Amino acid sequence: MFSKACEYGIRAVIYIAQKSLNEERASLKDITAEIDSPEAFTAKVLQQLARAKIINSVKGPNGGFEIKKEDIDSIKLSEIVNALDGDSIYKGCGLGLKVCNANEPCPVHDKFTTIRSELRKMLENTSLFELATSLETGLTYLKR
């Protein structure tokens, strides 16, 4: 559903938010170890997220990645997805056909319209704070 970059990006941002809530910065090495991702690829994803102003990159010996505590609750999952994948998740054919629309639908067109609508709602209504704090309970995980 999401690109690999988006999957790693979401997991990284959740981890960074969790660290930021504890007033800590996350290093690239810590992030990649925690989310089980390749370092060079993850670094590029984090650059995109920093350019989109979702995370902050701090240079220097005490540097790393962080998110302002006061911003964590206002960042929605949809912002992360949009920064990395754009709005392609809401468009395109569920079967990958070049032409698929209301006038020329594929066999799953109508079902995908409903699913995409629900997905959009979930992404727009899920805050980073909600995801980061769910890790604290031990009921959710970033890797397995």
From TrEMBL:
Gene3D superfamilies: Winged helix-like DNA-binding domain superfamily/Winged helix DNA-binding domain. GO terms for cellular component: cytosol. Pfam families: Rrf2. It comes from the Bacteria. GO terms for molecular function: DNA-binding transcription factor activity. This is Rrf2 family transcriptional regulator. It comes from Roseivirga echinicomitans. The lineage of its organism: Bacteria, Pseudomonadati, Bacteroidota, Cytophagia, Cytophagales.
